[in-house]
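DM from R.C. (forwarded with permission)

"hey, sorry to bug you on a friday — could you get me a structure for this? deadline for the figure draft is monday and I only need the backbone to look sensible"
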Amino acid sequence: MSATVDRDRVLELVEQGAQLVEVLPRHEYDEEHLPGAIHLPLKSLTWQAAGALDRGRPVIVYCWDGL
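My reply, with the result:
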């Protein structure tokens, strides 16, 4: 299931244990990302890379494009 959420909802979800995933390239992640975000670049996202995520916790995927 996917949904668009606002900043307040992201904060709430993170407080409840959600995982933040930044999908932009490394140099953009290094430049600026949300605290605690996991870096999984979209262009190299595989099932193996996604194995870094805890399947028992919600995942919030974000990028800065278009913001």
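R.C.: lifesaver. The first helix runs from residue 7 to 15.
me: no worries. The mean pLDDT is 88.
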